[in-house]
Amino acid sequence: MRKIAILNQKGGVGKTTTSVNLAAAMAGAGKKVCLLDLDPQAHASTHLGVTATRGMATLYDMLVRLTPWEKARLQVESNLWITPAALDLAAAEVELSGVVGREMILRDLLNAEPDAFDVLILDCAPSLGVLTLNALTAVDEVIIPLQPHFLALHGLGKLLETTGIVSKRLNQALKVSGVVLTLCDPHTRLAQEIVEDLTGFLERGRSSRTPWAATKLCTTRIRRNIKLAECPSFGKSIFSYAPTCHGAEDHALLAQEILDLKPALMATSTFEESVSRFSPQTAPAPLAKAG
Ligand SMILES: Nc1ncnc2c1ncn2[C@@H]1O[C@H](COP(=O)(O)OP(=O)(O)OP(=O)(O)O)[C@@H](O)[C@H]1O
Ligand SMILES: [Mg+2]
């Protein structure tokens, strides 16, 4: 079972759009997929037409009441399930604050059914709190959606540093398998400059023993497409709403690219060596000019 967190602490970069449509694309490709909504905004749940009602178990129940995962998921399409969220998930951050081992709760509940699905996609909230730490402890892989904006690379160093700390303390298996450019106008000079900066940065990390040593900059770019912005209000994935648009085409290609990714080969130097090499100066700088 591949477990993938879609993560970026920056808001509005396309995490939920990527999570929902990637999950739907993989389900369409014949994989049995469960999408887990780790965001109290519950946008992934809404996107697939699910509003948690009284009596429906959600991620909150899993984290706070230790409700088994099998009781907290429902099928929404052929091959596609969701573990929904509701606003009460915001309270979990506070309610878990005194609980020992709170970062491992989700991992343990998912591990109770190790072969239930082919792929799990976790849509993370735009924060690095206990919900996101639960996601990072439960998964093997992170995919980072990045909007090619001139400040977009600013937070990437911090985000990667967080995956490094989690891999050291909570989840040694964690790796960042891909970065995907979202909300993209691929032919602008700005997008091309960001690709160059990002490629250079990832190349410099290749010999490290960090979770991003084998990160792939996905060749599929998710272009801006108004249909992608419209489909959540209909409670549908892009494949149900507008299956022939660019947005559907891009997510189908991205799903195939991610399904084809091989487990990362971890390189040789120690985590401490890489961290000492990793400083704000080595993180990609925000671009000075717009294209
Ligand atoms: N490729 C795209 N083309 C057009 N609109 C898009 C695209 N991707 C995302 N959007 C729209 O941009 C907005 C932000 O996207 P989304 O909700 O996926 O981001 P997010 O990172 O999950 O946000 P948050 O951090 O709040 O969870 C949404 O209105 C969404 O419909
Ligand atoms: Mg979101």
Number of domains: 1
Number of strands: 8
| Helix/sheet category | alpha/beta
Strand content: 5-15%
Task: Explain this structure.
The chain is α/β, with parallel strands linked by helices. The chain has a single domain, classed as Rossmann fold (3-Layer(aba) Sandwich), CATH 3.40.50. 38% of the residues lie in helices and 14% in strands. The chain has twelve helices and eight strands. It has helices at 15-28, 43-47, 59-65, 89-95, 105-111, 130-138, 156-169, 189-204, 226-230, 238-241, 246-260, 271-277; strands spanning 2-6, 33-38, 74-77, 80-83, 119-124, 141-146, 175-181, 216-217. It has an eight-stranded mixed β-sheet with strand order 3-4-2-5-1-6-7-8, with helices on both faces. Strand 7, helix 8 and strand 8 form a beta-alpha-beta unit. Helix 1 crosses helix 11, helix 3 packs parallel to helix 4 (89-95) and helix 5 runs parallel beside helix 6. The protein starts with a strand and ends in a 14-residue tail after the last helix. 47% of the residues are buried. Residues 15-16, 39, 43, 123 line the site of magnesium ion.
